[in-house]
Design brief:
9 helices; alpha/beta; Rossmann fold
Length: about 290
C-alpha cells in the first residue's frame, strides 16, 4: 500500500505559537514514516506533557499522551509488548532531562529498539518559559530575572558516556536533514536518540533562525569525522561545549550491541509477541488458599 503523508494527519489544528519548531519536527516525523512506507496502523508514538505533547492530537496513529517525563517509559512498554510496531517516544528537553532522565539512561543502557525524539527549545515553554537543564547558566528566564544560577551540564557527553548505539543531533529549521536523520534512527536496530534543537519565538527569543544558522555546522562537511568512533564523538562533544557550535548529523552509531529483547534468554526461539500471549486464566483453585 502506498502511504500518503495526509494519512498521518488528523483534523485537529495545532496550538503552537507561530514560528515554533514543533511544526517542522512533526511534519518531518510524518514524512519519515511515509517515506519508510510505515502505515499509521503500524506505528506507536508516545507523548508527554509539554508543547511537543500537543502534537498527539495532530498525528493519526496509535498515540498515547502520558505524564510529564514518561514518554520513554510508555514507548518502552509498547515496544516490549509488541515489536511489530515502529515505536517513537516524543519528548521535550524539560521532561527528558528532568523527570525523565532515568528513563533516558535506562533506554540507552538497555538498547531498546525504538526511537527517541528530544525537542530541545531550552525551556519549559508550556508553563511560560522556566529554565531547563539545557538552558545556559546566566540566561535570564521567567522567574529567573537575574539569570539561571545553576552550572551547565554537558548533555552530549552525558549521552555519549552511556555508549549509545545511535545518537544524532538535528535542527527544526532544516526539515530535510531532520527527516533523513529520523529515517535512519527508525531503521537502526537499537535505541536511537535524536536531540533536536528547535526555535521557540515566545520564550527563547535569543535563539532565532539567524542565531542557529550562525552556530550550526553539518557533520557532512567534516571529511575526517568517523561517527563509528566513540572517541571522535567525545572530541566533537568537547568542541561543542567549548565553542557553542552545534554539529548536526549522526554523532555516533554502531550496530554490534544486541538489543534488550535479543538478550532475553527466556524469549529465545519464541516467535509470538507478548501481547499475543495475554489471555484469561482460571484462578479458582488458587483463590481457595486466600481465605
Amino acid at each position: 500500500m502506498s502511504i500518503d503523508i495526509n494519512m498521518y494527519s488528523t483534523n485537529k489544528q495545532p496550538t503552537w505559537c507561530p514560528g515554533c519548531g514543533n511544526f517542522a519536527i512533526h511534519v518531518s516525523l510524518k514524512k519519515a514514516l511515509m517515506e519508510l512506507n510505515i502505515s499509521p496502523s503500524q506505528a506507536f508514538i508516545s507523548f508527554d506533557i509539554g508543547c511537543n505533547g500537543n502534537g498527539a492530537d495532530t498525528v493519526n496513529t496509535y498515540a498515547f499522551k502520558g505524564l510529564h517525563g514518561r514518554a520513554i517509559a510508555l514507548a518502552t512498554g509498547a515496544h516490549i509488548a509488541n515489536r511489530k510496531y515502529t515505536v517513537v517516544a516524543d519528548i521535550g528537553d524539560g521532561a527528558c532531562f528532568h523527570e525523565g532522565i532515568d528513563h533516558l539512561i535506562n533506554a540507552i543502557k538497555s538498547n531498546y529498539d525504538m526511537t527517541i525524539l528530544i525537542h530541545d527549545n531550552q525551556n519549559f515553554a508550556l508553563t511560560t518559559g522556566q529554565a531547563t537543564v539545557t538552558t545556559k547558566q546566566g540566561k535570564k528566564m521567567y522567574a529567573l530575572p537575574e539569570g539561571k544560577p545553576e552550572r551547565d551540564i554537558d548533555i552530549n557527553q552525558l549521552i555519549l558516556s552511556l555508549q549509545p548505539t545511535f545518537f544524532a543531533k538535528a535542527y527544526s529549521g532544516d526539515p530535510q536533514q531532520l527527516t533523513e536523520i529520523i529515517k535512519k534512527g527508525i531503521e537502526h536496530k537499537g535505541c536511537s536518540v535524536i536531540q533536536i534543537s528547535q526555535t521557540c519565538p515566545t520564550y527563547n527569543k535569543e535563539c532565532t533562525p539567524q542565531w542557529f544558522n550562525e552556530h550550526i555546522i553539518k557533520l557532512e562537511t567534516l571529511s575526517q569525522y568517523n561517527n563509528s568512533s566513540l572517541e571522535d564523538a567525545q572530541k566533537l562533544a568537547k568542541e561543542m561545549a567549548q565553542t557553542g557550535k552545534i554539529y548536526t548529523g549522526i554523532i555516533h552509531q554502531h550496530s554490534n550491541t544486541p538489543t534488550f529483547y535479543d538478550r532475553l534468554e527466556s524469549r529465545k526461539d519464541i516467535q509470538s509477541e507478548l501481547v499475543d500471549e495475554v489471555q484469561e486464566y482460571d484462578i479458582t483453585q488458587l483463590l481457595k488458599y486466600c481465605n
